[in-house]
Amino acid sequence: MKNIQKSNTYNLDYLKTSLKSTIFQNFYFYNEIDSTMNQIKRFNQSQKKEGTIVIAETQKMARGRFQRRWINEPRESLCFSILLSPKILELKFLNMAVAISISESINQLTQIETKIKWPNDILINNKKVSGILIETELINNQVSSCIIGVGINVTLKSFKDPNLSNATSILVESGIHLDRNTLLIEILDNLNQLYSSIQNGISLKTLWEKKLETIGKEISVKQGDKVISGIGIDVTEEGDLIIKEKNGQTTKLSSGEVTTNLQM
Hints:
Elements: H1 12-18, E1 26-33, H2 36-42, E2 52-59, E3 77-84, H3 94-110, E4 115-117, E5 121-124, E6 127-139, E7 142-153, H4 170-174, H5 180-199, H6 205-211, E8 218-223, E9 226-235, E10 241-245, E11 250-253, E12 257-260
Parallel strand pairs: 1-2
Antiparallel strand pairs: 2-3, 3-7, 4-5, 5-6, 6-7, 8-9, 8-12, 9-10, 10-11
Helix pairs in contact: 3-5
């Protein structure tokens, strides 16, 4: 286990120095904000440098996939957004890179096994500890901006919302009071390496398969009003999920909401 710094506050100088060999050098911190993703969108062009990181102690309008509210508590959650500028052909690999980076970082710092519930929920002991949201803007078929929002439950001990019965935190599962600076550095360092791999055409499929808990399980995937049921049997190079339906047909899914262990 790596040496873990202990602090309740963010140290931007420490973050920048620790990540000096990466693209992540432009940090902004807000004690309270509506959303870190929204803040990046509000930046002027000179502030929108690739690798820009916006961190917030509290987000009033934090959201996850399907516009669900993300509950975050001051000093107990790690909430940040990243601005990247991938080429359009690299875009489809980013979800894998971010999810793997978070999962591996928690594992490296705590020795607790983490898994990824396709497409990008990070799980410890089958409970959700982190979520990811990626929003991309295209202009003339080119990526204008790609904003990645991340929320991680670090030291939360209780979840009052009844809709969060499957939520957990790193502290609850590992007993470790993980410093958020240390965790963020680990995530960004791992992401820097995987982003470089994407840019150099190196496949992430093997890492993705190793981390996914969805493969081999009976699942149901909701896409809009449609529900597709079957067994997760494989993934594509881009991270799409391939399921085998009851009728033997195989279907490739690029997005959706997965429920596992359903009776079929």
